[in-house]
Amino acid sequence: MSQILAFDLGGTFIKYALMDEKNAILSRGKVASPMTGLEDLLSALEGVGKEFTGQYAGVAMSMPGRIDTARGIAHTGGAFQFICECPFARLAQERLGTPVTIANDGKCAANAEIYDGALFQVNCGAVVVLGTGIGGGIVLDKKVWMGNSFGAGELSLLPTSFEKLRFGLRGPEDIRLLWAGAASTSALLGNYMLRKGMDPRGEMDGLKFFEAYDAGDPAAKEALADLGRMVAAGIYSIQAVLDLERYAIGGGISARQEVTDAVRAGLEEIFTNVKMTPFSKPEVVICRYGNDANLLGALQFHRARQ
């Protein structure tokens, strides 16, 4: 049997899919993510596993946090704050009765794009996932770079102010000292609401934002241009260290071509104005895989280990 059960552990839902040897999804679903403790999380995974008893030969799992894929250790768990220095793959294997591979969600997204997506046949590149924060995966020599402590690609923490960051994050407004606070989907929506004089505690999402954008709202146009500039500034900073060939933009809002257009415009502005730049301007493209990227990337990690 070559079918694999893949999980994508998120802060709201656990998505899952039974996938065949050609990466086709045979069945899929989702359950609410238990945030009440490790035992409840493992029980939720076990419950899904029982739904597919006898139909899979392994489990591939995407999850937030600092993950040692080779040893199956979750050093942290992101939104699952109860996960700390946990042999998560072994514990899940005991519940599911089959080999389990775990990997960081941003790295899974990058691994999916390497397989046959936006980074296929690219030697060095990156995935930048715009969401509540900024997820990411760095690809060097056609492989996902894990980093010395398995934290490579934690792009949310890229500084936007070296001078102020030394004092730490002293209040909610200081989140803009990090790339997540300046260039995420959350930052885009917050910027728009500020420009409109709206209560920042009010409801706003990507769908409502682009409704305003499509209606020609100048505040929406300006907010998206700001996002493009801030994403471009972060890419420029990464380029100064890694000089990558291509960046693939993911996340829900990346489905809109205007997002990557804004990033390209921001990069063009920087490369035009910073004359002394010694490295090349990278390509900026849209990720091929949307909501299924983490599932597919986890699957590829599992197959590589097997």
Which keywords apply here?
five-stranded mixed sheet; 306 residues
SSE blueprint:
Layout: E1 4-9, E2 13-19, E3 25-32, H1 38-51, E4 58-63, E5 67-68, E6 73-76, E7 84-86, H2 88-96, E8 100-104, H3 105-116, E9 125-130, E10 134-140, E11 143-144, H4 162-165, H5 179-183, H6 185-196, H7 206-214, H8 218-242, E12 246-250, H9 257-273, E13 283-286, H10 293-305
Parallel strand pairs: 1-4, 4-8, 9-12, 12-13
Antiparallel strand pairs: 1-2, 2-3, 5-6, 6-7, 9-10, 10-11
Word description of this protein:
By secondary structure, the protein is an alpha/beta fold. 39% of the residues lie in helices and 21% in strands. It is built from 10 helices and 13 strands. The chain has a 5-stranded mixed beta sheet, sandwiched between helices. A 5-stranded mixed beta sheet has the order 11-10-9-12-13, sandwiched between helices. A 3-stranded antiparallel beta sheet has the order 5-6-7, with helices on one face. Helix 8 (218-242) crosses helix 9. The protein is globular and about 60 Å long.
